[in-house]
Design brief:
mainly alpha; single chain; elongated; about 0% strand
Length: about 50
């Protein structure tokens, strides 16, 4: 069995480090903001990270 706990914890750390002012920011994918990319990963669309 593969232990995904370290990868999940890293993702939690990254997501909780995102501030509200970063949600509308650009990503390497020109058509998507940071908030869009979070949604694509299966997380609910963030209204606010606060």
């Amino acid at each position: 069995m593969i232990d995904l706990s370290p990868a999940c914890q890293r993702m939690i750390d990254v997501l909780t480090g995102i501030t509200d002012d970063q949600l509308g920011g650009a990503t390497p994918c020109d058509d998507f903001t940071v908030a869009d990319r979070i949604t694509i990963m299966g997380c609910p669309r963030p209204v606010s990270m606060a």
